[in-house]
Amino acid sequence: MLWQFGKEGGAGASYLFGTMHVQDMRAFAFLENAQEKILECGRLALEFDLAAAPAAQLAAQLQLPDGLALDFLFSAKAFAKMRRIFLKAVGLDIAHFRHVSPIVLANLINEQMLSRDMPVSLDEHLWQFARRHELPVVGIEAYEEQLEVLRQIPLEYQLHALASMARHLGRQRRQILHMAATYESGDIFKLYRAARRSASGLRGLLLYRRNQVMARRIALLASEHPTFCAIGAGHLAGGKGVIRLLKQQGYNLSPAE
């Protein structure tokens, strides 16, 4: 999960770290080593700077368009059935989230399937760690860019994905738990394949295009100052992954000790 990279005559060693955006203890398996390298670099780069995402604005951006609600977009029977399924399985009443975008609701349900051992997600924990040590934190992507990615996912696709999750919730739970165990084992290639499979027809939008943007900006950050860069672990591996893209830009990468 942790890679050292740099160039001959560059600013010094930077690090690339794969995260899971969850509170499950298994996501914190490599925390001690990560914190050590953050202090060594003196600067943290997350997918986006959490300070740039006001809670009220975030909530507004993740809502369905005005006038739409999930219990209108699904038939009454289908919505009631999904509500029963999710309430029984993960204790989440989707009636309280009827105005939330389906893709956001699906992510909330996925999080409920994992343990919530830690008070915050791994990304937020790293952000808090850097702030406590008065280190600068920068965003690899802009907050607005991440919202724009969500906005580009067709609503019909989101509705279909949520309905499919309800129909196959047992399989979804097994996949989520398997991903957490795979992360703990450090197998970035299996995580990449899982991320690619999960993105399905949206791989270009959710994975490959973002990988290109992140690799360019990580390279720029590392050329300025040693930087600890933390991104979702599914973005690391693969022919179009960030590790390969950084190598194509002339960076030498090796697993960090």
Based on helices, strands and strand pairing, what is the structural class?
A: alpha/beta
- Order of helix and strand elements from N to C terminus: EEHEHHHHHEHHHHHEHE
Give the end-to-end Cα distance, rounded to a whole number of Å: 11 Å
Q: What percent of the residues sit in helical stretches (DSSP H or I)?
A: 40-55%
The total of helices stands at 12
Major sheet, described briefly?
6 strands, mixed
- Give the low-pLDDT segments: none
Number of strands: 6
Shape: elongated
Rg from alpha-carbon coordinates: 19 Å
Mean pLDDT, as a whole number?
Answer: 93
Read across the widest sheet, the strand sequence of neighbours is: 4-3-5-2-1-6
Number of domains: 1
Estimate the strand proportion.
5-15%
Could you give a quick summary of the protein structure above?
This protein is α/β, with parallel strands linked by helices. Helix content is 54%, strand content 10%. A hairpin with a 7-residue loop joins strand 1 (2-6) and strand 2 (14-19).
List keywords for this structure.
single chain; 257 residues; alpha/beta; six-stranded mixed beta sheet; 12 helices; 6 strands; elongated
List the helices and strands and how they pair.
Layout: E1 2-6, E2 14-19, H1 31-41, E3 44-46, H2 55-61, H3 70-73, H4 76-90, H5 102-113, H6 122-132, E4 137-139, H7 143-151, H8 155-167, H9 169-185, H10 188-199, H11 203-224, E5 228-232, H12 242-248, E6 252-255
